[in-house]
Known about the structure:
The chain has a single domain, classed as DD-peptidase/beta-lactamase superfamily (Beta-lactamase, 3-Layer(aba) Sandwich), CATH 3.40.710.10. The chain is built from nine helices and nine strands. The chain has helices spanning about 30-35, 55-60, 70-80, 110-115, 120-130, 130-140, 170-180, 190-200, 255-270; strands at about 20-25, 40-45, 50-55, 90, 105-110, 200-205, 210-220, 225-235, 240-250. The model is unreliable at about 1-10 (pLDDT under 50).
Amino acid sequence: MRVIFCVAVLVVLMQACTPNNVNQDESLKKYFDDNKAEGCFALMDNGTGKFTVYNLARYRDSSFLPASTFKIVNSLIGLQTGKISSDSMVIKWDGVIRSFDSWNKDLTMYDAFRASAVPYYQEVARRIGKDTMQTYLNALGYGKKSDTDKVVITSAIDTFWLDNSIKVTPDQQLGLVKKLYFDELPGFFKTNQEMVKRAMLFENNTNYRLGYKTGWGFWNEQTGKHLGWVVGWIEENNHPYFFVLNLESKDKNFDMVTVRMKILKDILKQLGFFEGKM
Length: 278
């Protein structure tokens, strides 16, 4: 392992939601209803520490498979352990034709992250190995139910974030991206955190900067119940806000790729973003 990792370091990813700093905004429900989805949304204003939340109970207390949002953590651990040498490291395509054309070629970490290429990150996870992965997850507090809880990977090292064997709360997801934004994840070099943030930055203009990672999985392959995420930050006038969107649908034909971004941007627009005035 490239660096000495301190197992004793523990990051509490959960944010401090109290009745005094949470505005429960039921007006945001319409964006889920209009798209035949259920879920929750939370936005934290870093300057004030205040939260705007729709469906507080789901945000704070319910946990779900992370799906491809786990690429944030997988990237960080891969970089820190040297299994990913840099965000330009190429993993060769295995020649298997998959549903997404963007996966069917040699990819760098940067490109694999932005294309959400599962095969690339499955190979990274195999190279990291189960014991090392568990050590980092426990230190991050990722998927833990309490400070004394231990993360145990009970399924294959290259599928556990997809098969419901590990789950995270929306609150933990928001806490992770907040600490990442400020390079505050202990045990990870700043340069590695910066590489992941660079891969997450999808929109950057004079009015705002929008960084995020999406996720899409299934609670049950037989019923086809979709579960989706968008986690990240929006920055205006050098002022960051952190958000998490979590949604689900029982519609087997649900267009998760389109709907999750539509809901996110509709909510952010209602809250006053995208005009450079926040």
